[in-house]
Amino acid sequence: MRLMATGDSMITRRLSHNPDPRFKRLVELLRSADAAFTNFEMGTPRDPVTPNVNHPSAFQYAKPYVLDDLKWCGFNLIGAGNNHVADYGPKGLMDTLEEMEARDITTAGAGISLGEARMPGYRETAGGRVALLAVTSTNVEHSMALARRADMDGRPGVNPLRFGIRYELDEARFNALVDIDEALGTAAAFRHRQEFAALMGHASPDAHVFLGGNFFKAERSRVVTRPHKGDLDALLRGIAAARKQAEVVAVSLHAHEGPANDMNQEVPADFIVEAAHAAVDAGADIVIGHGPHMLRRVEIYKGKPVFISLGSFVFQIETLQRQPAAAYEKHGLPPEALAPDVTDEVGAIREGPRRAFWDNRFWTSVVADVRFDGSDLRSVDLHPIDLCMEAPRWVRGAPVLATAEAGREILEGLAELSPDVEIAVEPEGDAVVGRVRL
To answer: Which residues contact 164 (CB under 8 A, 6 or more apart)?
Structure first.
């Protein structure tokens, strides 16, 4: 089996009309695979469109025809476990899943209830049967699926991979925190709320809870993250079931988090790596990470490829056609503002002050070309792509194969992030390819 893996597709415009020969060659590459994966970080809600209660910087809305173009590109596996697919609530999520089903696209990571969201999707290909499971860690509180009960329906949503944060402080800083807590009165408030134990969650008994965080006295100060045991166990059970049903088991893991609960940077939070390794231990053949919209390291873990993040495949975040009132209010925009005004606040905007996404790391990535013999890994090639940061807004965000010079720079940067693998950069026509030494 030949599997192509990409990162996030935040797609708001058609791709299929693009005459660029580098884009056409990229499509040919995707179509040459038995299975091709991307993460659809969008919703395609039908009217009446109702936004969710969560409050992202911009609600990701697209017309269903973008799924036609992704399928035209060759994608037949699409992840729905991410932090934007439910931006338009349970109805918008189900509309999106129905549009995928109508196009015979295999998906995973979201469903009408938690059980369905956790189920693998299966795809029959000429190279064998592939299973797809998908989870997301970012902003899941308002979009996670809920389980059915005999006396109550569940809720449509995404398959969560929640995580716990443990704040460790050396003795001096820990004691200072306790003093600050008492001085603010927040310690007394917490003790009062403890009388209503059902509202307190599941704090560790030896933790000092301050402003919702669990703090522990330790030898040194640091932030530790661990995956939620119940969510991880459910994923591992799904992998074990899929292992009995398919030759290749793929896991999609959407996570923006970095160290100290930062977002969108090259170094992942600890829980992401722990979950990815646990997935392989449970039987996954490939872990396809994404979320921060930039590349993170590549690993070969126990003979299986683990892509901590493949960045973005399509990043058309500046041409959203509709936005709810909450998005305008968040950015202090007046009632007469329009959708491009919201994306002025969120996107790269070449004009004016530099914004967070005006960084070439958000506009370059790779397509992973992975070949299996049964479940045995045979090769991993990395094809650099360019999302054209310097192009006008109405062009920017659509991928093309990178030039040889740009591609070499992309692969050398990824190699620096991936010290435990060797990536050999070789010419391929007027481009380059990175070959991972197994």
So the answer is: 214, 225, 226, 227, 228, 271
Return the C-alpha torsion angle 236, 54, 396, 17, nearest 10.
80
pLDDT value of residue 53: 81
pLDDT tens digits, 47-93: 999 999 866 677 999 999 999 999 999 999 999 999 999 999 999 99
Phi, psi for 238 (deg, rounded to 5): -65, -40
pLDDT higher at 357 or 256: 256
Beta-bridge partner residues of 432: 427
Mean pLDDT of 335-355: 74
Residue 173: how many CB atoms within 10 A of its CB? 16
For residues 309 and 254, what is the distance between their CA atoms, to the nearest angstrom? 8
Q: What is the pLDDT of residues 330-343, one digit of tens each?
A: 888 998 999 988 88
Number of H helices, E strands in the chain: 11, 22
pLDDT over threshold 60, residue 8: yes
Contact, 385 vs 366, CB < 8 A? yes
3-class DSSP assignment, residue 307: strand
Q: How many angstroms separate the first and last alpha carbons of the chain? A: 17
Q: pLDDT, tens digit, for every residue of 217-241? A: 999 999 999 999 999 999 999 999 9
Percent of the chain with pLDDT over 90: 83
Residues 6+ apart with CB under 8 A from 422: 415, 436, 437
> Using CA atoms, how far apart are residues 66 and 27, in angstroms rounded to an integer?
15
Q: How many residues does the chain have?
A: 438
Nearest to 65 by CA among 389, 321, 311, 313: 321
What's the confidence (pLDDT) of residue 261? Answer: 83
Q: Are strands 106-108 and 110-111 parallel, antiparallel or unpaired?
A: unpaired
Under 8 Å between Cβ of 6 and 47 = no
Q: What confidence tier does 382 reach under pLDDT thresholds 50, 70, 90?
A: very high
Amino acid at 406: A
Which of 138, 137, 140, 120 lies closest to 129 in space, CA to CA?
A: 120
Give the bridge partners for 3, in sequence order: 35, 370
Pairwise CA distance, residues 434 & 432, whole Å: 7
Distance separating alpha carbons of residues 26 and 225, to the nearest angstrom: 37
Crossing angle of the two packed helices 186-193 and 171-184, in degrees rounded to 10: 80
Taking Cα atoms as reference points, which of 152, 40, 46, 133 lies closest to residue 89?
46
